[in-house]
Amino acid sequence: MLIFTIIALHCVVKPGLQRIEEFVNDKNQGKSRFYMDNRRPIDSKRRYPSFTQQPWYYGDGSDFEAIPSWMKQQAKKDNPYESESNVRWKFLKTASSRKPDDLLKRKPEASSESQEIDADLFKNEYYKDFQKFIREHNKVYTNSREYRWRFQVFVKNMKELKEMQDNRSNLVFGIGPFSDKTDEELSKRLIPHGYRFIIGEGDSAPLKIEDSDFPSREGRPQQIDWRTKGAVTRVKDQGDCGSCWAFAVTAVVEGQNAIHNKTLVSLSEQQLIDCDHDNSGCNGGYRPYAFKYIQRHGQTTDKLYHYTARAQNCRHIKANRVHINDYKWLGTNEEKIADWVSHHGPVSFGVNVTKPMYNYKSGVFNPSPEDCRQKSLGAHAMTIIGYGELDGEPYWLIKNSWGTHYGIDSGYLRMKRGVNSCGLADAVYTAIINK
Ligand SMILES: *[C@@H]1O[C@H](CO)[C@@H](O)[C@H](O)[C@H]1NC(C)=O
Ligand SMILES: *[C@@H]1O[C@H](CO)[C@@H](O)[C@H](O)[C@H]1NC(C)=O
Ligand SMILES: *[C@@H]1O[C@H](CO)[C@@H](O)[C@H](O)[C@H]1NC(C)=O
């Protein structure tokens, strides 16, 4: 079951909320216990990584003070030539060897000069694009300082965008809803790769579907798009909350419900965030736990239990709950996964996120394996809702939860199929509703 231990799962977190809520040194056990969401200590019976063997990546940097000093010392020892802020970055944010972005360290300064916008700014070649970006994405900046700061970040991102553009393919990157965000902010929105180690797996690891239960490949259509069959709800927006796990799982259950009960109903991610106490609300989640919760309790509708992008107390809304019978792991063979999808509907998966994913506009996205390993900002879960080929290139059609300004078709993307792109085939899970 090594596969389950290497798959990390999650995603976008509210900058303010994404913090180590409380770090309690449990002297009796000589172990640190870790509280998330101010709600619930992580089960002390579960396995934890050893901090010394495996650096602990969590939080947004503002919580460095909350970390026990022996852990800080360890981090400094591992990085003797780095300044504390760099150590902090490395320690908390990412397993990659990426250096902190210079821009990030340069906070906007309060000076009289910055009260007025430079004449330079208007002359900048990206100024018009920035104006357009602000209009299209309804950006509101609180003052001229922030405005200037955002413009600097935007210009830097535009320069990177040029480099991303791979002229050999029809893959297109462009200005998107995240174009004024720093790398630090983008990675803040992602759950670091160690989440699975933190929460452990318990007895929730899904069983693999028997090979004999896969539908036959014979007659599998060249392409499939479950939107055209009424099995996909509108694109949603998780906002600044690390809840992609809930969106990915919910889209699968919505699909199964649509296929088996012939009614397409938008279900409640918020219920999972508030009530699935095995997971961590806006601080991330492990999809099998969420499926297990739905199997036990059912999932009510989005209409009855609205999304708020923050963790709240669980509301016990019993009405209109959709139930599933089981949840399964589909294995890592993408041909078989396609067989399954063509026959049974959307499935959820996890993937390492690299920066170009934020700027994806069209084409078939397929970052290099090196970038996926070394330049990933964090992990993210989404839902495969179909597949096909674009100019001979096989792809998965994917529903994201980053709002309707993202990607193709207002909220979707295509990723390369058949090459385990950024680990997308490593942890594909689905819900089962018996007929
Ligand atoms: C794509 O073309 C642009 C301009 O023609 C060039 O600056 C850039 O380096 C090229 N990118 C790649 C990945 O070849
Ligand atoms: C199943 O379909 C029936 C009839 O269309 C509908 O009344 C019911 O609410 C649906 N159940 C769920 C769980 O969506
Ligand atoms: C995802 O990123 C982590 C951390 O950088 C890395 O250990 C892992 O190998 C990556 N997975 C893939 C499939 O690239």
CATH superfamily of the largest domain: Cysteine proteinases
Task: Kindly name the structural category.
Answer: alpha+beta
Bound molecules: 2-acetamido-2-deoxy-beta-D-glucopyranose
- From the N-terminal CA to the C-terminal CA, the straight-line distance is 30 Å
Please give the count of helices.
14
Total domains: 3
The CATH class designation of the largest domain is Alpha Beta
Domain Peptidase C1A papain C-terminal: 220-432
Domain Cathepsin propeptide inhibitor: 130-186
Family: Belongs to the peptidase C1 family.
Signal peptide: 1-18
Describe the protein in words.
Residues 130-186 form the Cathepsin propeptide inhibitor domain. InterPro entries: Papain-like_cys_pep_sf, Pept_cys_AS, Pept_his_AS, Peptidase_C1A, Peptidase_C1A_C, Peptidase_C1A_papain-like, Prot_inhib_I29. Residues 220-432 form the Peptidase C1A papain C-terminal domain. The chain is of the alpha+beta class and 435 residues long. It has three domains: 12-101, no CATH class; 104-173, no CATH class; 195-432, Cathepsin B, Chain A. It is 30% helix and 15% strand. The strands form four sheets. Strands 6, 8, 10, 11 and 12 form a five-stranded antiparallel sheet that branches. A hairpin with a 4-residue loop joins strand 1 and strand 2. The longest helix is centred in the middle third of the chain and has 21 residues, at 144-164. Mean pLDDT is 76; it is low at 1-68 and 81-117. The site of one 2-acetamido-2-deoxy-beta-D-glucopyranose (NAG) has 4 residues, from loops.
Short description:
With 435 residues, this protein is of the alpha+beta class. It has helices spanning 2-6, 69-78, 84-93, 102-105, 119-123, 127-136, 144-164, 183-188, 195-199, 244-261, 269-275, 287-297, 334-344, 369-374; strands spanning 22-26, 31-36, 40-41, 172-173, 207-208, 224-225, 326-329, 347-354, 360-362, 376-390, 393-399, 412-416, 429-432.
